[in-house]
Amino acid sequence: MIVILAFCHSPLYTMSKQANNRSPQTDSWNTYWQGTGDTGAFASGGASHPAIREFWVSFFQTIKADYKNPAIIDIASGNGAVLESILDAYSKQDIKLTSLDISAAAIENISQRFPSVNGLVADAAEVPLESGSFDIVTSQFGVEYAGQEAILEAARLVADGGQLALLLHADSGSIHEECLQSLDAAERTQACHFIPVAMNMFDAGFKAVRGADRTAYDAAAKELAPAIAELESIMKQYGLHVAGDTVSRLYNDVGQIHQRIQHYEPDDVLGWLKKMDAEVNAYAERMASMSRAAIDNDDFTQVKTSLSNCGFSIQHAEALLIPGQELPMAWILIANK
Questions:
Q1: What pLDDT, in 10s, does the model give residues 255-314?
Q2: Could you give the 3-state DSSP secondary structure of residue 36?
Q3: 159 with 133: CB under 8 angstroms?
Q4: pLDDT tens string 84-131
Q5: DSSP class of 16
Q6: What is each CA distance from 88 to 79, 91, 132, 140, 203, in whole angstroms?
Protein backbone atom coordinates (compact mmCIF):
# COMPACT_ATOMS: atom_id res chain seq x y z
CA MET A 1 0.00 0.00 0.00
CA ILE A 2 2.79 2.47 0.80
CA VAL A 3 4.40 1.78 -2.58
CA ILE A 4 1.17 2.60 -4.35
CA LEU A 5 0.74 5.89 -2.57
CA ALA A 6 4.32 6.90 -3.20
CA PHE A 7 3.93 6.07 -6.89
CA CYS A 8 0.84 8.26 -7.16
CA HIS A 9 2.32 11.08 -5.05
CA SER A 10 -1.09 11.23 -3.39
CA PRO A 11 -2.25 13.70 -0.71
CA LEU A 12 -4.48 10.91 0.61
CA TYR A 13 -1.52 9.69 2.65
CA THR A 14 -1.66 12.78 4.84
CA MET A 15 -5.43 13.15 5.22
CA SER A 16 -6.50 14.31 8.64
CA LYS A 17 -8.94 11.44 9.08
CA GLN A 18 -6.56 8.68 8.07
CA ALA A 19 -5.52 7.73 11.60
CA ASN A 20 -9.12 7.45 12.73
CA ASN A 21 -10.51 5.51 9.76
CA ARG A 22 -8.73 2.21 10.13
CA SER A 23 -10.59 -1.05 9.60
CA PRO A 24 -13.34 -1.60 12.20
CA GLN A 25 -13.28 -4.43 14.69
CA THR A 26 -13.73 -7.56 12.58
CA ASP A 27 -15.61 -9.34 15.36
CA SER A 28 -18.39 -6.76 15.32
CA TRP A 29 -18.96 -7.27 11.61
CA ASN A 30 -18.84 -11.05 11.96
CA THR A 31 -21.45 -10.82 14.70
CA TYR A 32 -23.60 -8.70 12.41
CA TRP A 33 -23.36 -10.85 9.29
CA GLN A 34 -23.90 -14.13 11.10
CA GLY A 35 -27.52 -15.06 10.66
CA THR A 36 -28.24 -12.67 7.77
CA GLY A 37 -27.62 -15.17 4.99
CA ASP A 38 -31.31 -15.80 4.31
CA THR A 39 -32.28 -12.14 4.01
CA GLY A 40 -32.27 -9.97 0.93
CA ALA A 41 -29.19 -7.88 0.51
CA PHE A 42 -31.01 -4.55 0.56
CA ALA A 43 -32.99 -5.50 3.66
CA SER A 44 -30.16 -6.67 5.89
CA GLY A 45 -28.55 -3.56 7.23
CA GLY A 46 -26.82 -0.62 5.67
CA ALA A 47 -28.76 1.74 3.40
CA SER A 48 -31.92 0.26 1.92
CA HIS A 49 -33.30 3.24 0.03
CA PRO A 50 -34.50 2.31 -3.49
CA ALA A 51 -32.38 5.12 -4.94
CA ILE A 52 -29.23 3.19 -4.08
CA ARG A 53 -30.41 0.13 -5.96
CA GLU A 54 -31.47 2.38 -8.83
CA PHE A 55 -27.99 3.89 -8.97
CA TRP A 56 -26.35 0.50 -9.48
CA VAL A 57 -28.96 -0.72 -11.96
CA SER A 58 -28.41 2.41 -14.04
CA PHE A 59 -24.62 2.17 -13.78
CA PHE A 60 -24.40 -1.41 -15.02
CA GLN A 61 -27.00 -0.91 -17.72
CA THR A 62 -24.92 2.03 -19.00
CA ILE A 63 -21.58 0.24 -19.13
CA LYS A 64 -22.40 -3.36 -19.93
CA ALA A 65 -22.35 -2.75 -23.69
CA ASP A 66 -18.69 -1.73 -23.36
CA TYR A 67 -17.78 -4.60 -21.03
CA LYS A 68 -19.15 -7.80 -22.54
CA ASN A 69 -17.41 -10.35 -20.29
CA PRO A 70 -15.82 -8.28 -17.56
CA ALA A 71 -13.81 -9.26 -14.52
CA ILE A 72 -15.45 -7.45 -11.59
CA ILE A 73 -14.57 -7.16 -7.92
CA ASP A 74 -16.88 -5.73 -5.28
CA ILE A 75 -15.01 -4.56 -2.18
CA ALA A 76 -16.51 -4.75 1.31
CA SER A 77 -19.52 -6.58 -0.10
CA GLY A 78 -21.35 -7.13 3.16
CA ASN A 79 -24.44 -9.13 2.26
CA GLY A 80 -24.08 -8.63 -1.46
CA ALA A 81 -26.18 -5.59 -2.36
CA VAL A 82 -23.99 -4.64 -5.32
CA LEU A 83 -23.52 -8.28 -6.32
CA GLU A 84 -27.27 -8.63 -6.83
CA SER A 85 -27.26 -5.71 -9.28
CA ILE A 86 -24.24 -7.10 -11.13
CA LEU A 87 -25.75 -10.56 -11.53
CA ASP A 88 -29.06 -9.08 -12.67
CA ALA A 89 -27.35 -6.91 -15.28
CA TYR A 90 -25.13 -9.72 -16.58
CA SER A 91 -27.61 -12.57 -16.13
CA LYS A 92 -26.94 -14.02 -19.59
CA GLN A 93 -23.28 -13.09 -19.94
CA ASP A 94 -20.13 -14.81 -18.78
CA ILE A 95 -18.39 -12.70 -16.13
CA LYS A 96 -15.70 -13.26 -13.53
CA LEU A 97 -17.08 -11.90 -10.27
CA THR A 98 -15.16 -11.61 -6.99
CA SER A 99 -16.46 -10.46 -3.60
CA LEU A 100 -14.06 -9.17 -0.93
CA ASP A 101 -14.88 -8.53 2.71
CA ILE A 102 -12.91 -8.47 5.96
CA SER A 103 -15.67 -10.54 7.59
CA ALA A 104 -15.47 -14.29 7.05
CA ALA A 105 -19.14 -14.54 8.03
CA ALA A 106 -20.10 -12.12 5.26
CA ILE A 107 -18.15 -14.08 2.66
CA GLU A 108 -19.65 -17.35 3.87
CA ASN A 109 -23.15 -15.91 3.47
CA ILE A 110 -22.31 -14.61 0.00
CA SER A 111 -20.89 -17.96 -1.07
CA GLN A 112 -24.14 -19.64 -0.02
CA ARG A 113 -26.37 -17.10 -1.76
CA PHE A 114 -24.21 -16.59 -4.86
CA PRO A 115 -22.32 -19.83 -5.59
CA SER A 116 -20.82 -18.43 -8.80
CA VAL A 117 -19.07 -15.58 -6.95
CA ASN A 118 -15.47 -16.04 -5.86
CA GLY A 119 -15.21 -14.99 -2.20
CA LEU A 120 -12.10 -13.47 -0.65
CA VAL A 121 -11.61 -12.62 3.04
CA ALA A 122 -9.17 -9.70 3.16
CA ASP A 123 -8.60 -6.15 4.39
CA ALA A 124 -9.59 -3.59 1.76
CA ALA A 125 -6.47 -1.60 2.66
CA GLU A 126 -4.19 -4.45 1.58
CA VAL A 127 -5.81 -6.53 -1.15
CA PRO A 128 -3.71 -9.61 -2.00
CA LEU A 129 -4.35 -9.39 -5.75
CA GLU A 130 -2.31 -8.11 -8.69
CA SER A 131 -2.69 -4.58 -9.97
CA GLY A 132 -4.97 -4.15 -12.96
CA SER A 133 -6.77 -7.45 -12.39
CA PHE A 134 -10.31 -6.18 -12.94
CA ASP A 135 -12.28 -4.29 -15.56
CA ILE A 136 -14.70 -2.95 -12.99
CA VAL A 137 -14.11 -2.27 -9.27
CA THR A 138 -17.08 -1.36 -7.08
CA SER A 139 -17.85 -0.65 -3.45
CA GLN A 140 -20.96 0.51 -1.62
CA PHE A 141 -20.34 2.06 1.78
CA GLY A 142 -17.40 -0.21 2.42
CA VAL A 143 -13.95 0.60 1.11
CA GLU A 144 -13.75 3.80 3.19
CA TYR A 145 -13.96 1.77 6.42
CA ALA A 146 -10.42 0.59 5.77
CA GLY A 147 -9.21 4.19 5.66
CA GLN A 148 -9.54 6.69 2.86
CA GLU A 149 -6.21 5.56 1.45
CA ALA A 150 -7.92 2.24 0.71
CA ILE A 151 -9.72 4.00 -2.15
CA LEU A 152 -6.39 4.09 -3.96
CA GLU A 153 -5.91 0.42 -3.17
CA ALA A 154 -9.22 -0.22 -4.94
CA ALA A 155 -8.06 1.97 -7.83
CA ARG A 156 -4.87 -0.10 -8.09
CA LEU A 157 -6.96 -3.10 -9.07
CA VAL A 158 -8.53 -1.36 -12.09
CA ALA A 159 -7.17 -2.44 -15.49
CA ASP A 160 -6.39 0.08 -18.21
CA GLY A 161 -9.68 1.02 -19.80
CA GLY A 162 -11.57 -0.08 -16.70
CA GLN A 163 -13.86 1.72 -14.29
CA LEU A 164 -13.97 2.45 -10.57
CA ALA A 165 -17.50 2.99 -9.18
CA LEU A 166 -18.03 3.86 -5.52
CA LEU A 167 -20.79 4.98 -3.20
CA LEU A 168 -19.15 6.52 -0.13
CA HIS A 169 -20.51 7.62 3.23
CA ALA A 170 -21.04 11.37 3.23
CA ASP A 171 -20.23 13.30 6.39
CA SER A 172 -23.41 15.05 7.58
CA GLY A 173 -25.44 13.09 5.02
CA SER A 174 -28.73 11.38 5.84
CA ILE A 175 -27.16 7.96 6.43
CA HIS A 176 -24.43 9.51 8.56
CA GLU A 177 -27.04 11.28 10.69
CA GLU A 178 -28.95 8.02 11.09
CA CYS A 179 -25.74 6.26 12.16
CA LEU A 180 -25.07 8.91 14.79
CA GLN A 181 -28.59 8.53 16.17
CA SER A 182 -28.26 4.74 16.26
CA LEU A 183 -24.86 5.00 17.92
CA ASP A 184 -26.26 7.26 20.62
CA ALA A 185 -29.19 4.87 21.17
CA ALA A 186 -26.90 1.84 21.44
CA GLU A 187 -24.48 3.58 23.80
CA ARG A 188 -27.30 4.79 26.03
CA THR A 189 -28.72 1.26 26.13
CA GLN A 190 -25.32 0.04 27.24
CA ALA A 191 -24.84 2.84 29.77
CA CYS A 192 -28.16 2.23 31.56
CA HIS A 193 -27.26 -1.47 31.93
CA PHE A 194 -30.71 -2.54 30.75
CA ILE A 195 -29.67 -6.04 29.72
CA PRO A 196 -27.53 -6.99 32.76
CA VAL A 197 -30.21 -5.67 35.13
CA ALA A 198 -32.96 -7.49 33.21
CA MET A 199 -30.94 -10.69 33.51
CA ASN A 200 -30.72 -10.22 37.28
CA MET A 201 -34.45 -9.59 37.47
CA PHE A 202 -35.35 -12.67 35.44
CA ASP A 203 -32.93 -14.86 37.37
CA ALA A 204 -34.57 -13.80 40.63
CA GLY A 205 -38.02 -13.94 39.05
CA PHE A 206 -37.67 -17.53 37.87
CA LYS A 207 -36.56 -18.50 41.36
CA ALA A 208 -39.56 -16.69 42.89
CA VAL A 209 -41.93 -18.50 40.52
CA ARG A 210 -40.48 -21.75 41.82
CA GLY A 211 -41.10 -20.80 45.43
CA ALA A 212 -38.10 -18.72 46.51
CA ASP A 213 -38.46 -15.55 48.55
CA ARG A 214 -39.54 -12.53 46.42
CA THR A 215 -37.23 -10.03 48.10
CA ALA A 216 -34.42 -10.39 45.54
CA TYR A 217 -36.90 -10.25 42.67
CA ASP A 218 -38.63 -7.11 43.97
CA ALA A 219 -35.27 -5.39 44.42
CA ALA A 220 -34.13 -6.35 40.90
CA ALA A 221 -37.42 -5.19 39.36
CA LYS A 222 -37.07 -1.84 41.12
CA GLU A 223 -33.50 -1.52 39.83
CA LEU A 224 -34.70 -2.12 36.27
CA ALA A 225 -37.22 0.75 36.36
CA PRO A 226 -34.71 3.56 35.53
CA ALA A 227 -33.32 1.53 32.63
CA ILE A 228 -36.85 1.02 31.27
CA ALA A 229 -37.38 4.77 31.49
CA GLU A 230 -34.15 5.36 29.55
CA LEU A 231 -35.24 3.08 26.72
CA GLU A 232 -38.57 4.91 26.59
CA SER A 233 -36.68 8.21 26.39
CA ILE A 234 -34.51 6.89 23.53
CA MET A 235 -37.56 5.77 21.53
CA LYS A 236 -39.37 9.04 22.18
CA GLN A 237 -36.37 11.01 20.91
CA TYR A 238 -35.47 8.93 17.85
CA GLY A 239 -38.54 6.80 17.07
CA LEU A 240 -39.34 3.13 17.48
CA HIS A 241 -37.08 1.99 14.65
CA VAL A 242 -33.84 3.53 15.90
CA ALA A 243 -30.81 1.24 15.98
CA GLY A 244 -32.43 -1.22 13.62
CA ASP A 245 -35.39 -1.80 15.99
CA THR A 246 -33.01 -3.18 18.63
CA VAL A 247 -34.17 -0.83 21.40
CA SER A 248 -37.88 -1.42 20.81
CA ARG A 249 -37.33 -5.17 20.50
CA LEU A 250 -35.55 -5.29 23.85
CA TYR A 251 -38.17 -3.11 25.49
CA ASN A 252 -41.19 -5.03 24.16
CA ASP A 253 -39.80 -8.56 24.49
CA VAL A 254 -38.56 -8.09 28.04
CA GLY A 255 -41.97 -6.69 28.98
CA GLN A 256 -43.85 -9.58 27.37
CA ILE A 257 -41.63 -12.22 28.94
CA HIS A 258 -41.96 -10.54 32.32
CA GLN A 259 -45.77 -10.66 32.11
CA ARG A 260 -45.78 -14.38 31.28
CA ILE A 261 -42.60 -15.46 33.04
CA GLN A 262 -44.12 -18.73 34.24
CA HIS A 263 -44.39 -19.88 30.61
CA TYR A 264 -40.67 -19.54 29.81
CA GLU A 265 -37.57 -21.56 30.55
CA PRO A 266 -34.81 -19.70 32.44
CA ASP A 267 -32.01 -20.91 30.17
CA ASP A 268 -33.88 -19.75 27.06
CA VAL A 269 -34.55 -16.25 28.38
CA LEU A 270 -31.11 -15.68 29.90
CA GLY A 271 -29.43 -17.11 26.80
CA TRP A 272 -31.43 -14.74 24.60
CA LEU A 273 -30.43 -11.76 26.71
CA LYS A 274 -26.75 -12.73 26.54
CA LYS A 275 -27.04 -12.89 22.77
CA MET A 276 -28.76 -9.51 22.66
CA ASP A 277 -26.02 -8.02 24.83
CA ALA A 278 -23.40 -9.18 22.32
CA GLU A 279 -25.48 -7.80 19.46
CA VAL A 280 -25.88 -4.39 21.08
CA ASN A 281 -22.13 -4.17 21.72
CA ALA A 282 -21.37 -5.17 18.13
CA TYR A 283 -23.98 -2.75 16.82
CA ALA A 284 -22.44 0.15 18.72
CA GLU A 285 -19.03 -0.67 17.26
CA ARG A 286 -20.44 -0.81 13.73
CA MET A 287 -22.20 2.52 14.12
CA ALA A 288 -19.00 4.07 15.47
CA SER A 289 -17.00 2.76 12.52
CA MET A 290 -19.63 4.07 10.09
CA SER A 291 -19.41 7.50 11.67
CA ARG A 292 -15.61 7.50 11.48
CA ALA A 293 -15.68 6.42 7.83
CA ALA A 294 -17.83 9.31 6.62
CA ILE A 295 -16.08 11.60 4.13
CA ASP A 296 -16.52 15.37 4.16
CA ASN A 297 -16.34 17.71 1.18
CA ASP A 298 -12.63 18.52 1.59
CA ASP A 299 -11.69 14.85 1.80
CA PHE A 300 -13.82 14.06 -1.24
CA THR A 301 -11.95 16.73 -3.18
CA GLN A 302 -8.64 15.16 -2.14
CA VAL A 303 -9.86 11.72 -3.22
CA LYS A 304 -10.65 13.08 -6.70
CA THR A 305 -7.26 14.77 -6.93
CA SER A 306 -5.47 11.61 -5.88
CA LEU A 307 -7.26 9.52 -8.49
CA SER A 308 -6.49 12.08 -11.17
CA ASN A 309 -2.82 11.92 -10.18
CA CYS A 310 -2.98 8.16 -10.64
CA GLY A 311 -4.18 8.45 -14.24
CA PHE A 312 -7.95 8.31 -13.72
CA SER A 313 -10.50 10.46 -15.50
CA ILE A 314 -13.30 11.47 -13.15
CA GLN A 315 -16.68 10.85 -14.81
CA HIS A 316 -19.06 11.53 -11.94
CA ALA A 317 -18.22 13.04 -8.57
CA GLU A 318 -21.27 14.39 -6.82
CA ALA A 319 -23.69 13.91 -3.98
CA LEU A 320 -26.50 11.38 -4.33
CA LEU A 321 -29.59 13.48 -3.67
CA ILE A 322 -33.06 12.12 -3.00
CA PRO A 323 -36.19 14.14 -3.80
CA GLY A 324 -37.80 15.36 -0.62
CA GLN A 325 -34.65 14.95 1.45
CA GLU A 326 -32.51 17.92 2.38
CA LEU A 327 -29.37 15.92 3.20
CA PRO A 328 -27.42 13.94 0.59
CA MET A 329 -27.45 10.16 0.90
CA ALA A 330 -23.91 9.46 -0.30
CA TRP A 331 -21.02 10.52 -2.48
CA ILE A 332 -21.04 9.12 -6.02
CA LEU A 333 -17.60 8.58 -7.51
CA ILE A 334 -17.12 7.03 -10.96
CA ALA A 335 -13.73 7.20 -12.67
CA ASN A 336 -12.21 5.69 -15.81
CA LYS A 337 -8.62 4.56 -16.13
A1: 999 999 999 999 999 999 999 999 999 889 989 988 888 999 999 999 999 999 999 999
A2: coil
A3: yes
A4: 999 999 987 889 999 999 999 999 999 999 999 999 999 999 999 999
A5: T
A6: 16, 5, 25, 17, 51
- Whether residues 223 and 142 fall in one domain: no
Residues 330 and 173: beta-carbon distance below 8 Å? yes
Do 194 and 163 reside in the same domain of the chain?
A: no
**Residue 139 contacts by C-beta under 8 Å, 6 or more apart in sequence?**
74, 75, 76, 82, 124, 154, 166, 167
**Could you report how far apart the first and last alpha carbons of the chain are, in Å?**
19
Same domain for 323 and 189: no
Q: Are residues 19 and 150 in the same domain?
A: yes
13 and 157 part of one domain:
yes
Q: Are residues 42 and 151 in the same domain?
A: yes
Contact 317, 148 (CB under 8 A): no
Contacts of 55 (CB under 8 A, 6+ apart): 167, 320, 332
**pTM metric for this prediction:** 0.78
User: In the chain, how many domains are there?
Assistant: 2
Domain span including residue 21 = 2-171+294-336
